[in-house]
Amino acid sequence: MVDIARDDDRLEIADPPRFAMGERVLSRSVVRNDGTYRGKDIGEVLVNRGDIGYVRSIGTFLQQFYIYAVEFVDSGHQVGMRAKELCTLDHLPPEVLAQLTERFGDAVATLQARR
Predict the structure, then answer these.
(1) Where do the DSSP E strands lie in the chain?
(2) Tens-binned pLDDT, residue by residue, of the chain (115 aa)
């Protein structure tokens, strides 16, 4: 089990970013508007678990964490996310891809086939 407090204390930017620009990623969590996304109500869902997007830029927060600007094509939202909220779709072993497909549906398999 991962100790979240210990994970948040880690200086993430001491290592290279986990994802690259243009990489396909899957959201591991639901993201709601915290008030920083214009045109949406606070608390409104911007990204659902299992949504697929592309890393558009990589920044940092508090000189400690990487923040990945991820564009979710289906919804049109571009949202800043931490690495722990994302999973790559471009560099997965076949058995992991099969598990994700089983869990998140045919959308993962369809995107993987387009590679």
Answers:
(1) 24-27, 31-32, 45-47, 52-61, 65-72, 77-81, 86-88
(2) 445 555 566 788 888 999 999 999 999 999 998 888 888 889 999 999 989 999 999 999 888 899 999 999 888 899 999 999 998 888 777 777 777 777 767 666 555 555 5
Q: How far apart are the first and last CA of the chain?
A: 33
Domains of the chain, by residue range, sit at: 7-86
Distance CA 76, CA 67 (A): 18
Q: Which residues contact 16 (CB under 8 A, 6 or more apart)?
A: none
Rounded distance between C-alpha atoms, residue 64 and residue 51, angstroms: 26
Whole-prediction pTM: 0.74
Distance (Å, rounded) from C-alpha 82 to C-alpha 80?
7
User: Biggest alpha carbon distance in the chain?
Assistant: 40
Tokens of 7: 């994970």
